[in-house]
Amino acid sequence: MGDRKVRRRRRSGGFIDVLNGILTLFVIGLIAVGGVLVYGAAQFYGDGPLREETVFRVESGNSLTTAAQRLEEQGLITNAFIFTQVARRVENNTAIKAGDFRIPAGASMSEILTELTTGNPVRYAVVVPEGWTSWQVVQRLSDVGDLTGEVPNLPAEGSILPGSYDYVPGDTRQSVLDKMQTAMTEALAEVWESRQPDLPLESPEELLVLASIVERETGVASERPQVAAVFVNRLREGMRLQSDPTIIYGITRGQQTLDRGLRRSEIEERTEYNTYQIDGLPPTPIANPGIEALQAVANPDSHDYLYFVAKGATPSEGHVFAETYREHQQNVARYREIEAEAAAQAEAEAEAARRALEEAEASEAGDTGGN
Q1: How far apart are CA 332 and CA 350, in angstroms?
Q2: What percentage of the chain exceeds 70 in pLDDT?
Q3: Angle 269-274-275 (CA atoms, 0-180°, nearest 5)?
Q4: Which HAMAP family does the entry mention (predicted)?
Q5: How far is CA 333 from CA 91, 234, 249, 325, in A?
Q6: Distance separating alpha carbons of residues 42 and 109, to the nearest angstrom
């Protein structure tokens, strides 16, 4: 009887010991898990190891795991596992963007995750100025070191819409060019639909050609509708366009600059681009016109001007317009006077600069002009 009671007490005591052991292990486990969570939170939300701002690149198609591994390799975070686990299980935020991101010094994992998922990548862009030729655009694309591949064929003149085009480093040059050409196709179609109904132009392609001439004739934005109207008036009257930039394009094909004035022989030579010698429009655009030049041709000013000439010695001064040839000749005469005065002033300034240099050299040599 007594032995049974002893055995029962032993069994009861053993069960309690086991239960106490389990509870102890459970508590230790909780403490361990809590410690891990506290450590992970401290690592994720605390200051990071980065000592100075840097740019981190996420390649197109990179997963969160790949990005985390590269962040750790580059010393931006201390633990890729903690970064991915907290991002997935706590922040529920794994949709990272492609591109380059500026990561400030001391950025936490949390801040880096926010930057990669909701921040704006560093902007990279290729800028095409209005009036550039396709050859110039390809040269600029070739000079962008962040782009890859080559442009196999020179794009058609006028097929590129000038503007600013974003890209991600590693994009191909052809893909950026494709964006430029798609933009021109869409812009030209839209402008053609909104044109005045009585224009002497038969197709969007003719509008594009005339817009390229307008673009090359004036760099003053406010003048474009006025200049466009002069050429539209000439087409209506059956007059030749007589545009110097068309002659120049016929000589250079847009692949170099003509750093001199036109020769008489070039003006008198009949080529497919010389609008002093041919009727109507040249066969192709002579540059890539911007949206404002396209719109100016589609909706030119209403006036009776048939002529224009530069107003002053610099292009920014614009042009002066005339309805009659007599008035135009008077404007040309005034321009020649201004041109001569500007040339004389430039020569005088150059001579003054030469004298100043000569006097400085003489003074350094100890030649004071005395006996």
Answers
A1: 27
A2: 87
A3: 130
A4: MltG
A5: 75, 22, 27, 12
A6: 10
Give the tens place of pLDDT for each residue, 247-277: 999 999 989 888 888 899 999 999 999 999 9
Q: How many residues does the chain have?
A: 371
Task: Give 357-370 pLDDT, tens digit per residue.
Answer: 767 776 777 766 65
Where does the chain hold its CATH 3.30.1490.480 domain(s)?
Answer: 54-118
Is residue 44 a contact partner of residue 109, using CB atoms and an 8 Å limit?
Answer: yes
Euclidean distance between CA atoms 250 and 11, whole angstroms: 109
- Using left for φ > 0, alpha for ψ between -120 and 50, and beta otherwise, residue 107 falls in beta
Contact (CB, 8 A) for 258 and 248: yes
Structure confidence at residue 180 as a pLDDT band (50, 70, 90): very high
Q: How far does Cα 264 stand from its chain's mean position?
A: 39
pLDDT digit string, tens, across residues 69-87: 999 999 999 999 998 988 8
Each residue's pLDDT tens digit, 130-166: 999 999 999 999 999 989 999 999 999 999 999 999 9
Distance, in Å, from the CA atom of 75 to the CA atom of 51, rounded to the nearest integer, reads 10
- 93-108 burial by CB neighbour count: b if 16+ within 10 A, else e? beebbbbbbebeeebb
Could you give the CA distance from residue 41 to residue 237 in angstroms, rounded to a whole number? 80
For the record, the structure tokens of 242 come out as 């007589």
Residue 210 tokens read as: 């005339």
Contacts of 309 (CB under 8 A, 6+ apart): 319, 320, 322, 328, 331, 332, 335
Q: At what angle do helices 204-217 and 244-252 cross, to 10 degrees?
A: 100
| pTM across the whole model | 0.74
pLDDT value, residue 317: 86
Exposed/middle/buried for 322, CB within 10 Å: 0-12, 13-18, 19+?
buried
